[in-house]
Amino acid sequence: MLPYVGAVSRNPGQLDLFITGSDGHVYTTWWTAGADWPGLQWRDIGGIFPAGAPVAAVSRNPAQLDLFICGNDGRVYTSWWTAGSDWSGLGDNWRNIGGIFPAGAPVAAVSRNPAQLDLFISGSDSLVYTSWWTAGSDWSGLGDRWRRIGGKLPTWQHFHADHSFPWPVPVGGWSDVVINQDGSYVFSGHLHDSGYPDYDAVVGWALQDANGNVYTFGEKGHLEGTDLRFSPNREWDWNDRGSNGAIQANWQSLVDCAWHYNVQVNVDLGQVIQDLVKVYNVVTTIITVVG
Questions:
Q1: Distance, C-alpha 217 to centroid of its chain
Q2: Which residues, including other chains, have CB under 8 Å from residue 267's CB and lie 6 or more apart?
Q3: Domain ranges in the chain?
Q4: CA 20 to 30 Å from 266, out of 32, 163, 206, 250?
């Protein structure tokens, strides 16, 4: 894929160009009335991004330039220049302003007045998302809270977590939750005991939608270690299927929070798990998806 060149004019006598190099750094060159382009002397202004990723450039006044790019982690990053100061992102200090999008996805940026910036980007679900900045306030999409503003609603959502526990608990694995628009769901996963002791285990998920409704999924099982066993059953796999009418009824608010969730893994019993299932000597994983 050929690199994309971003261009902006902040006054009638100035042009600025931006491009992401093969090293993932953003480079710039500029033209000023009465002078020629500096030719091969493109300036490195930092960043670590997908090679050739599009850079969106916008000027909200003649003394200001703002750049936006989607990183390898799917977050949108920004760097800005103000007359009298250098680029804020020098030294790879571009600011993370949230989102969970395809790596290198094009970002559209526009300024409708000197105190306002609006960003737009398409997610891997083919929906369009926006975040905005107003003078005196921070970006609305911080914490991965970009707002969905269009496109066809997805018919399913997939959540995944990898699990590991602090020493000396030799247990690890993963779990998935898949929810569907018709209210059906699949809660599946796998844990492995690679050590000596046996463990009773419980894995629980709590999904919270944009309206504060909570949906819980849980399962408990047993893992065997080498404790007096020649052939211990070290694996625990589960694949629970069911239906929840609240998922279907609240599908819109579930989709609205799907792109801004936090996953927390903890070995302590939390209230969500206590309400979900009671066990005694357990390895416990708590995953909380927060809208």
A1: 22
A2: 165, 166, 169, 283, 284, 285
A3: 6-150, 156-289
A4: 250
Query: What is the architecture, at CATH level 2, of domain 156-289?
Result: Sandwich (2.60)
pTM of the model: 0.61
Residue 190: closest CA among 174, 170, 169: 174
Q: Provide the token pair at 128.
A: 């369009």
Class of domain 6-150: mainly beta
Choose among 206, 182, 186: nearest CA to 273. 206
Q: Can you say whether the dihedral through the CA atoms of 38, 39, 44, 49 is positive or negative?
A: positive
Extract long-range pairs of 213-217: CB within 8 Å, 24+ residues apart: 213/246, 213/250, 213/253, 214/272, 215/179, 215/244, 215/246, 215/247, 215/254, 216/272, 216/275, 216/276, 217/177, 217/185, 217/187
Q: Sign of the CA dihedral 124, 129, 133, 139?
A: negative
Judge whether 35 and 18 are in contact, CB under 8 Å: no
Tell me the pLDDT tens digit for each residue of 100-155.
Answer: 889 999 999 999 999 999 999 998 777 889 999 999 999 998 887 888 887 677 78
Distance CA 189, CA 14 (A): 57
Residue 206's nearest CA partner among 274, 144, 123, 253 is 274
As given in the structure block, the two tokens for residue 280 are: 């005694």
- Residue 70: name the closest of 24, 138, 7 by CA: 24
pLDDT above 60: residue 279: no
